[in-house]
Amino acid sequence: PAEPKLKKSANQKKKNGKSQPMPIKGLIPGMALHFARCCHPLPGDKIVGIVTTGRGVTIHTVDCDTLENFADTPERWLDISWDEKADATEAHTARLKIIVANAPGALGNISTIIGQAGGNITNLKIVNRETDFYEMHLDVFVKNTSHLNDVMSALRAASEVNSVRRAKGR
């Protein structure tokens, strides 16, 4: 029997010879770009670019604490925004801080809820353990802030979830 063909995951770009539209408005075409891991910017967030020699532009959310480090160098700041016409199927990493009850099946239920909401867990770290609760950081692939809000709403509806919010920092 033939092997089943695997579907491309949402975070893989199509390589069909056509250039993908730039997801960010206000950048020079061909300029290197990467997303800050301190704030995990998503389409729908207000963003700013910071130019770094040899690295290109790093995209941050406008409320990112790291931006304080660049307050004395306004010439490095770029006024940018998400392009609403860009491919909405590309996945971006969002970091969530979740406090969940220490109960059998709680982690499995959280995983199921995120999957049913169309998100995909890419990393999980338990940062604090108490007798009754665990505090976790979850990295989840989502399309944009609206998709992230849907995932967070679904998690909040779960009885074992005490709280969920977007996390800042690594």
Kindly estimate the percentage of residues that lie in beta strands according to DSSP: 25-35%
- Characterize the biggest β-sheet: 4 strands, mixed
Low-confidence residue ranges:
1-19
> Count the strands?
10
Task: Tell me about this structure.
The structure is a single chain. With 170 residues, the chain is α+β, with helices and mostly antiparallel strands. Helix content is 14%, strand content 34%. The protein contains two helices and ten strands; from the N terminus they run βββββββαββαβ. The chain has helices at residues 106-116, 145-156, and strands spanning 24-25, 33-35, 47-52, 56-61, 77-78, 81-82, 92-101, 120-129, 133-142, 161-166. Strands 2-4-3-5 form a four-stranded mixed beta sheet, with no helix packed on it. It has a four-stranded antiparallel beta sheet with strand order 8-9-7-10, with helices on one face. The chain has a two-stranded antiparallel sheet with strand order 1-6. The longest helix has 12 residues, at 145-156. It is elongated and about 50 Å long. 24% of the residues are buried.
Summarize the structure.
The protein has 2 helices and 10 strands; from the N terminus they run βββββββαββαβ.
Please describe the topology of this protein:
Elements: E1 24-25, E2 33-35, E3 47-52, E4 56-61, E5 77-78, E6 81-82, E7 92-101, H1 106-116, E8 120-129, E9 133-142, H2 145-156, E10 161-166
Parallel strand pairs: 2-4
Antiparallel strand pairs: 1-6, 3-4, 3-5, 7-9, 7-10, 8-9
